[in-house]
Amino acid sequence: MIYTGSYENCKSGRRVSISGDGGKSVSFTEETYKALAPKLDFWLLWHDNIGKISDIENNDFYITEYYKKVLQYIDPNQVLIDLENAIMLCYEPFPIDEDYNPRLHFCHRHIVSVWLELECGILVPEITTDEYGNITELPKISTINDDVKRLIYKNI
Predict the structure, then answer these.
(1) Residues 16, 84: contact at Cβ < 8 Å?
(2) Which one, out of 8, 11, 38, 97, has a CA that is 20 to 30 A from the CA of 24?
(3) Coil, strand, or helix at residue 156?
(4) pLDDT computed for residue 105 by the predictor
(5) Is 18 helix (H, G, I), strand (E, B) or coil?
């Protein structure tokens, strides 16, 4: 099994950073998988456009660039082998509340999740873990999933 989660929400398990800095800004010192990290050039453009263009347009740009510059060069089956029983971690939290807007909590780990689903036919749930190893599965972000599927299918 392979999972996604945030540094903040996953306290135990085989935690593997897929963020660009390997989790350094939160003092993460465990395993990293740099092949899935976003490229700085498109991340900076995306980040600079937050609030300047619509979230949909900006996130569509990010998804397309992430696929074209990262995912299309990676063997998804090798990712499954390399990250077996791992939690792919990044920064963005996964809040569940009445004001929750999935497009505002956008993260590349959800793109990886949908990509693995499309390429390998597996589900990659978002989870939290406590310090005792207890796992809680979180709901899928259907809006982001639909956006990723639409754009990846367009680029495959």
Answers:
(1) no
(2) 97
(3) coil
(4) 66
(5) coil
Asked if residue 19 lies in contact with residue 37, where contact means CB atoms within 8 angstroms, the answer is: yes
Q: Could you give the CA distance from residue 155 to residue 72 in angstroms, rounded to a whole number?
A: 9
- The pair of three-digit structure tokens given for residue 143, joined into one six-digit string: 């809006």
**CA–CA separation, 71 vs 116, rounded Å?**
10
- What does the pLDDT read at residue 57? 93
Structure confidence by residue, pLDDT tens digits, 122-144: 999 999 999 999 999 988 766 66
Amino acid identity for residue 140 in this structure = K
How many of the other CB atoms lie within 10 Å of CB of 30?
A: 11
Q: Residue 46: name the closest of 30, 57, 35, 32 by CA.
A: 57
- Which token pair is 11? 């306290």
What is the enclosing helix (H) or strand (E) of 131?
none
